[in-house]
Automatic annotation (TrEMBL):
This is Metallophosphoesterase. The lineage of its organism: Archaea, Methanobacteriati, Methanobacteriota, Thermococci, Thermococcales. Residues 23-107 form the Calcineurin-like phosphoesterase domain. Coiled coil: none annotated. GO terms for molecular function: hydrolase activity. Transmembrane segments: none annotated. It holds the Pfam family Metallophos. InterPro entries: Calcineurin-like_PHP (IPR004843), Metallo-depent_PP-like (IPR029052).
Length: 192
């Protein structure tokens, strides 16, 4: 079933789906309510790489509510099913609301530390959960999430699902479904 989006988003998805370039998909701070949408994007766009920059179940604030760990484990299990696709390389950076041993249990060799740089089709991607973890790294693209901060050569996965096409280096953003910020626990964006 195709994703139902406004016309301008459909055009971006058509472009992403039809290109022969390598596609890197970047997500961050994902509440469970966004998992289906993420799965549909993966199915439609078929990225070769997916990078998650932390807070895998962002509707569960594990840092503040450790008693919610059983719910968190169930959510991470669901996300692992969505993100594990044959032929797709995955990188996962644990965030402040994640339990690193649980993340490693479900994503094993895909887990990388904040500040890791990976090279994809000759381009360098700095991976971190916060902008501070990538801001000073020598990279073509700095991928992060955690808050709404924007930095030079940065792609913030809180603001939307980012796609980078390689080798051209063109970047596109697809907004998360309505209500995603509410599910993350953000009541509203102040000043935006």
């Amino acid at each position: 079933m195709p994703i139902r989006l406004p016309l301008f988003r459909k055009k971006v998805l058509e472009l992403l789906s039809s290109t022969d370039e390598t596609k890197v998909m970047h997500i961050s701070d994902t509440p469970e309510s966004a998992y289906r949408f993420i799965g549909e994007l993966i199915e439609e766009v078929r990225p070769e790489y997916v990078i998650h920059t932390g807070d895998l179940a962002d509707n569960i604030k594990l840092e503040r509510r450790p008693d919610m760990k059983p719910l968190y484990i169930g959510a991470v299990r669901k996300l692992a099913r969505v993100l594990k696709n044959p032929g797709m390389e995955l990188y996962v950076v644990p965030g402040n609301e994640d339990d690193p041993p649980v993340v490693r249990e479900f994503f094993r060799e895909s887990v990388v530390e904040p500040g890791t740089i990976v090279e994809i089709v000759g381009r360098r991607f700095a991976l971190g959960h916060t902008w501070r973890e990538v801001a000073n790294l020598d990279a073509d693209f700095r991928l992060y999430g955690h808050n709404f901060k924007l930095i030079d050569r940065g792609l913030n996965g809180v603001l939307g699902v980012n796609f980078v096409l390689l080798p051209s280096g063109k970047a596109y953003r697809v907004k998360y479904p309505g209500g995603t910020d509410f599910e993350r626990g953000y009541k509203m964006w102040r000043g935006l």
